[in-house]
Amino acid sequence: MKVERLGFLSALLASTCCAVPLGLALLGLGGLGLGSVIGAYHWYLTAGAVALLLGAWGYFLRERRRMDALASDLKNERSTRTSLTFASVVVGFFVALNVYAALGTSGPAGPAPAVAAETLTLPVRGMSCVSCEWPIESNLKKLDGVLEADASAARSNVTVKVRPGAVSLDAIVAAVRAAGYEPDLAAAKREG
């Protein structure tokens, strides 16, 4: 049934803004900057996925009612229902990630590091959900001298605590770009 394809397409569309940049970062191709580009359209992608999924469910249920009226069985009903349920779970998961990030429900800040630290807050374009934050934080934490890294899609920035003089701004920018996102250097703030 073609409805199954619509369900899978909706799941693919919902995961695009999260899975593509994350996948590219894992492959070492995050520097292409697709995270920033795709992230700018994440709500459109999410809305499109929900619309496709609702359309697929609507078509499936309409066909089921039509076949019931004819006292006939719907071909591949079980596999279609399973496919649409799977797509609903995937789309729901990515909608929840986007809403979670948009509401800014990140946890409380941890205790301050015991050593002297300098804090850099760097706006980042294109982050749209929690899965956008992970590759940025991971890349930054690999840098020698980084004590903490906290990327926030809700605030569209990354806060990095470093040992004073231990990490250059260029290295931090390169780590963010390697994850596929574009930092805004003009609005960067340094404290400490």
Catalogue the unreliable spans.
Answer: none
State the distance separating the first and last CA atoms.
61 Å
Beta fraction of the residues?
5-15%
Q: Strand pairing plus helix content: what structural class?
A: alpha+beta
Helix content: 55-70%
Which sequence of SSEs, written as H and E, runs from N to C?
Answer: HHHHEHEEHEE
**Silhouette:** elongated
Strand count, sense and closure of the main sheet? Answer: 5 strands, antiparallel
How many structural domains in the coordinates?
2
Describe this structure in words.
With 192 residues, the protein is α+β, with helices and mostly antiparallel strands. It folds into two domains: 2-103; 118-191, Alpha-Beta Plaits (2-Layer Sandwich), CATH 3.30.70. Helices cover 56% and strands 14% of the residues. The protein is built from six helices and five strands. It has helices at residues 2-26, 34-39, 42-69, 77-103, 130-141, 169-178, and strands at 118-125, 146-152, 157-162, 182-183, 189-191. Strands 1, 2, 3, 4 and 5 form a five-stranded antiparallel β-sheet that branches. Strand 2 and strand 3 (157-162) form a beta hairpin. The termini are far apart.
Quickly describe the structure.
The chain is α+β, with helices and mostly antiparallel strands and 192 residues long.
